[in-house]
Amino acid sequence: MSSIAEPALEFRNVTKRYGETTVLEDFDFQLGAGEKVALIGPSGSGKSTVLRIAMALEDIQGGTVRVHGIPLWLDGVAADRAQTRRARARLGMVFQHFHLFPHLSVLENLTLAPRLVNKKKADEAAEQAIALLRRVGLEDKAQAWPEQLSGGQKQRVAIARALALQPDIMLFDEVTSALDPEMVGEVLEVLRELGETTSMSMLLVTHEMAFARQFADRVVFMDGGKVVEAGPPEELFGNPREERTRQFLSRVQPM
Ligand SMILES: Nc1ncnc2c1ncn2[C@@H]1O[C@H](COP(=O)(O)OP(=O)(O)O)[C@@H](O)[C@H]1O
Ligand SMILES: [Mg+2]
Q1: 103 domain residue, yes or no
Q2: In this structure, which residue's CA is closest to atom 3 in ligand 1?
Q3: Count of domains for the chain
Q4: Based on the number of CB atoms within 10 Å of its own CB, is 37 exposed (0-12), middle (13-18) or buried (19 or more)?
Q5: Cα of 125 from ligand 1 centre, angstroms
Q6: Which single residue of 86, 94, 147, 213 could bond 233 by disulfide (Cβ 3.0 to 4.6 Å)?
Q7: Range of the domain at 71
Q8: 50 C-alpha vs ligand 2 centroid, how far in Å?
Q9: Is 29 strand, coil or helix?
Q10: CB distance 111 to 129 below 8 Å
């Protein structure tokens, strides 16, 4: 069952450990349906772990995780494979390092999963892929190989590829951090356009504070595996309540 009021993503009381190291403890977080959230925090605070858990790429040791109401984990117990697959199908993710398939053309990078996973016909998948490439400003690169693209172009292809599976929720993990500075803008522009024109829920891990401020409905600051503070960008950036938030912001954004 799913309803309008149901969050896109829900983490309740989540504990995540790697061996002896506790990465998330009693972690609570919700991403509303259609909401655009920027997740910020120091390196090692657990941001990527949150995204990877949502993508069913990580085990957890306790708590509940739901994707549009579909459980991935219930009180520390993993859902069965069918449910995990259903939950997983609602999500798309873009990584810092693009992970394009190097032996496939740009077009094939975009059509592979729709054909294999969604059983799309080749011509339909290609038509959709071209439309997505147009959207990220790369329709002339359909026949190019990944190695012929700049970093910014690769990342725009990676975004288009994630969109090709028509997710309801998009997760972005520092997608501009590996780029040369002159290419950051073109990728942020694609994110901005997506944020403004789609009803997808979006969770964006970023160090681009100026962009987070204009992109996000809500900013969540985490540190040490917990949410320290969350609020509208004007409040969190303009008037943070917590000392830890203030210290972090003073390090990453010029006053
Ligand atoms: N595969 C792993 N094995 C052991 N420790 C890990 C692993 N992945 C992440 N960690 C640890 O978990 C913590 C949180 O990591 P991460 O979620 O990547 O943080 P962030 O994305 O906020 O920088 C860090 O202390 C990191 O060293
Ligand atoms: Mg990370």
Answers
A1: no
A2: 18
A3: 1
A4: buried
A5: 36
A6: 213
A7: 1-90+201-255
A8: 9
A9: strand
A10: yes
Per-residue pLDDT averaged across 55-67, rounded? 97
Question: What sections of the chain are H helices per DSSP?
Answer: 47-54, 81-88, 106-116, 122-135, 151-163, 181-197, 209-215, 233-238, 243-252
The answer to whether residue 254 scores a pLDDT higher than 80 is no
Question: pLDDT (tens digit, 9 = 90+) per residue, 137-157?
Answer: 999 999 999 999 999 999 999
Q: Decide: 49 in ligand 1 pocket, CB within 6 A.
A: yes
CATH number at residue 59: 3.40.50.300
Give the pLDDT band (50/70/90) at residue 98.
confident
Does residue 88 line the site of ligand 1, with CB under 6 A? Answer: no
Q: Is the pLDDT of residue 89 over 70?
A: yes
Average pLDDT over residues 70-97: 96
Whether 194 is in a domain gets the answer no
Instruction: Kindly state if the Cβ of 47 falls inside 6 Å of ligand 1.
Output: yes
- Confidence bin at 4 (pLDDT 50/70/90): low
Residue 240 lies in a domain: yes
Q: What mean pLDDT do residues 174-194 have?
A: 96
Strand order in the sheet with 77-78: 21-31, 9-18, 62-67, 70-74, 77-78
In a domain? residue 216? yes
CA of 246 to the centre of ligand 1 (A): 23
Mark the residues whose beta carbon lies below 5 A from ion ligand 2: 47-48
pLDDT for residue 1 is more than 60: no
Q: Ligand 1: which of 15, 17, 20, 21 to mutate, judged by most atoms within 8 Å of the beta carbon?
A: 21
User: Which residue's CA is the nearest one to ligand 1's atom 18?
Assistant: 48
